[in-house]
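dumping this here before i forget
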Amino acid sequence: MKKLYLLTGATGHLGTVLLSSLREKRESVRALTRPGSHEKLPEGVDCCIGDVTDRESIRPFFDKTGYDHTTLVHCAAVVTIASKANPAVWSVNVGGTSNVMQLALENQTDRVIYVSSVHAIPERPGAEVITEVDHFSPDAVCGQYAKAKAAATQMVLEYAKRGLNVSVVHPSGIIGPGDFYVKNHMIKTIRAMAKGTIPVSISGGFDFVDSRDVAEGILRCEALGKRGECYILNGHYVSIRELLNLVRGMVGKKAIRFELPYRLGKAVAAVGERVMHLLGEPDPVFTPYAIYTLNTNGRFSHEKARAAFGYQTRDLAESIRASL
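structure:
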């Protein structure tokens, strides 16, 4: 059987790692990239230039000529923690996903994996462990990125009911290798922690997962996941103080004990975000929404993915080292 993988978001953090894994397995891959991004792809990868928000521009991406089986992995997304509304978050994450799923259905794509996010899942009170749900609503989550992902995920599940063989994965905060262009907010944060430009800790924490574990989870889900089912692909919960001192320890810096309380941290982040924008930095790593997220319930379970297709995670320290 001659098989082709269709990959969107191939030059992003997760897409880069997944593409590398597929090439190591000697799989045929066609990557969808925006104009100007195709030069970032390695040799040997079939490139299709298009924009997910323009359905006609991506129609050639789904051509099955010469192949017996096609698997689509839809990674492309706009991620933001900014306070200012960004229209691209909705147009790409929702409108773009609609275009991709519609064409996958029209072209009878054999298997589809949609990369959602744990942020699409409604929060549970206290430290109650968060597991998969089967319904998503923008009204049940906070933040423009979370709302867009919730809307897109619900739409994808509707396509499953229409016959598309699609499963959904929900990664937590992705770290690890592969972010060669340093666009990932957490990679930027870890780099700043290592440089010592984050002099204090902040309250809260989150769940972080290695990019390689998510990539492997996607391929396992492709093989063994069920149509219309969702699977959380998380890693390890860690407080920001623990993370900061783990990074500092790896680069020979002393541990930090002082921690900004939530309200003060949010106020500082609001001022810092405005200052960074004035200095020409459009994408600061600490914003009021980021501080809010770090102080919500970030305790997830990947037991469903483990039972369904043997999903596993590596040690957090290993992922931090690989990030650095």
